[in-house]
Amino acid sequence: MPHYNQPEKVLCAATHYLDFPKPAQGCSNIEKGIVLCGKSHSDIIQQHVVLCNKTQHEMGLFEQGFVTTENRFIGRKEAFIMAAFNSQITEEGLRRGGDNLYSEFLY
Questions:
Q1: Domain assignment present for 3
Q2: In which element (H, E) is residue 64 found?
Q3: In a domain, 1, yes or no
């Protein structure tokens, strides 16, 4: 089967919880903590509240960002550049997003 070189794209919203008390889980470029994924960051917040019975801020250090098709966690700024390059952002997102990507502007 031939291999097609496809550009890396933003896949979904993600939050990296750096202080999660387990070995690194999730993305290939994460050395500590856990990455939870979902359609939106609010979906992810609901996930960890159910799983851990804690609010997001009770989980310790965290960063909201995105997971790519290469299984990498990236921050909002890098995600905006990648999604804009791949025409993944809605017109409203391009107008209102500034230089940060927000999940509601992907879909």
A1: no
A2: strand 62-68
A3: no
Render pLDDT for 74-104 as a digit per residue (tens, 0 to 9): 999 999 999 999 999 998 888 886 899 999 9
The per-residue pLDDT for range 46-55, each reduced to its tens digit, is 988 888 888 8
**DSSP result, 34-56:** EEEEESSHHHHHHHHHHHHSS-G
Pairing of strands 73-75, 34-38: unpaired
**Comparing C-alpha atoms, which of 45, 87, 69, 82 is closest to residue 100?**
82
Residues 58/29/46/49 CA torsion (nearest 10 deg): -30
pTM exceeds 0.70 for this model: yes
Contacts of 57 (CB under 8 A, 6+ apart): none
Side-chain half-sphere of 53: how many Cα atoms within 13 Å? Answer: 0
Asked whether residue 4 is domain-assigned, the answer is: no
